[in-house]
Amino acid sequence: MTRIVIIGGGPGGYEAALVAAQLGADVTVVERDGPGGACVLTDCVPSKTLIATSTRIAVMSESAGLGLRFNGGPDGIVGALEADMATVNKRVKDLARAQSFDVAERLAYEDVKIVRGEARLVEPHVVAVGDRRIDADIVLIATGATPRVLPGAEPDGERVLNWRQLYDLPELPEELIVVGSGVTGAELAGAYLSLGSKVTLVSSRDRILPTEDADAAAVLQDVFLRRGMNVMSRSRAAAVERSGDGVIVTLEDGTKVEGTHCLMTVGMVPNTRGIGLEEVGVRCDARGFVEVDKVSRTSVPHIYASGDCTGVLMLASVAGMQGRIAMWHALGEAVQPLKLGWVSSNIFTDPEVASVGVTQHMVDSGDVNARTVMLPLFTNARAKMQGFEDGFVKLFCRPSTGIVLGGVIVAPRASELILGVSIAVQQHLTVDQVAHTFAVYPSLSGSITEASRRLMAEHAY
């Protein structure tokens, strides 16, 4: 029986463990924090739970345009919505623990052994956990990553925070300064704005979400500004310091921004140091990410890696697929290499931003020849009914064949809507095929088929 040791119990680890166990291997998962890893316990699951609450309160707060109001009692006083952060944070942490328990139950059902502790490769085929030595025919590194710390802005867990420390706050931050306008910064800035914080978002670039679709970023930034967020573009933080019951963020140009709390969202650092990779010959790049090929294999043939520690795409779905691919390959099963062009992603802001395949930048730069259509969401009947005004559906197709190459959706629940475009991309469907697919009327998904019809009608291919 093949002995497999997986270092890390997040999606890149536990998904791999399930595949390996079902293929008959003897599997041991070593996890420091608990089943599910940081993804379940401190990162993805908690943040999306918080965001779900903030989205709900935002929808309720904006319901007046639909003819609704909240009555505070028989005297006719209109009640005000506010977040009870003690209850919100308790629910966030309880749900994360429940999800971790579910992962543990599933692993136990498949007879996967879980060892709690920190692992280290002491020999190419030996993993140490404290004084214990575990022999392995195959090793999978799935150790994840940790929030990057900006020198001069070290988190203290009280006023200067990383996103893993948010859920221990006893109350809602009154004035929150978010440093970093990437995905995590935008998601949490929007969430706390909806929950009632006064939010300042410090962006080192000329817009938020600098690596995402520019049209999507523009929509989201307009929404943030309209809702009262202070977005400081082309502003780079140099230092953060405590000042009594607040914080002062000093920018590189000397400008000082004051608030009650500061949230640092300036990237991730891989958890690859001190676990014996260099000693056994596993190559990492200059930033410390493990180098892997398209079947998750490292420079050492029997050692694989998956998830955030590889830096390929820091998404739970990608981590899980990397882990599964690694086990299929290691155990001799037929396997299809990871194709990044098929990966769909979502930014859990309000509205959400989902994308898959070819990007607008690839089209604009000439790297990809594609036809494009962008259909505003406010033309959709269902969106009008529900009061959704911000967003769009954008599709890309090949000029000659009409094959769908990718798309971007900015809308409520875009994470659910993008699946149809993902299927079209992966199965090489044409816009004709999508256009002739029945969509429910009225529905937001109807904008996908409508965009396909416009591509079919407006562009000869």
UniProtKB/TrEMBL annotation:
Domain FAD/NAD(P)-binding: 3-323
Binding site for NAD(+): 180-187, 267
Chemical reaction(s) catalysed: a quinone + NADPH + H(+) = a quinol + NADP(+); a quinone + NADH + H(+) = a quinol + NAD(+)
GO molecular-function terms, A-Z: flavin adenine dinucleotide binding; NAD(P)H dehydrogenase (quinone) activity
Residues in Pyridine nucleotide-disulphide oxidoreductase dimerisation domain copies: 344-451
Enzyme Commission number: 1.6.5.2
Disulfide bridge partners, by residue number: 39-44
Family matches, as Gene3D superfamilies: 3.30.390.30, FAD/NAD(P)-binding domain (3.50.50.60)
InterPro entries for this protein: FAD/NAD-bd_sf, FAD/NAD-binding_dom, FAD/NAD-linked_Rdtase_dimer_sf, Pyr_nuc-diS_OxRdtase, Pyr_nucl-diS_OxRdtase_dimer
Co-factor binding details: Binds 1 FAD per subunit.
Top class in the EC scheme: oxidoreductase
Binding residues for FAD: 48, 308
Keywords noted in UniProt: FAD, Flavoprotein, NAD, Nucleotide-binding, Oxidoreductase
CC cofactor: FAD
Pfam families: Pyr_redox_2 (PF07992), Pyr_redox_dim (PF02852)
Family: Belongs to the class-I pyridine nucleotide-disulfide oxidoreductase family.
Subunit structure: Homotetramer.
Protein name in UniProt: NAD(P)H dehydrogenase (quinone)
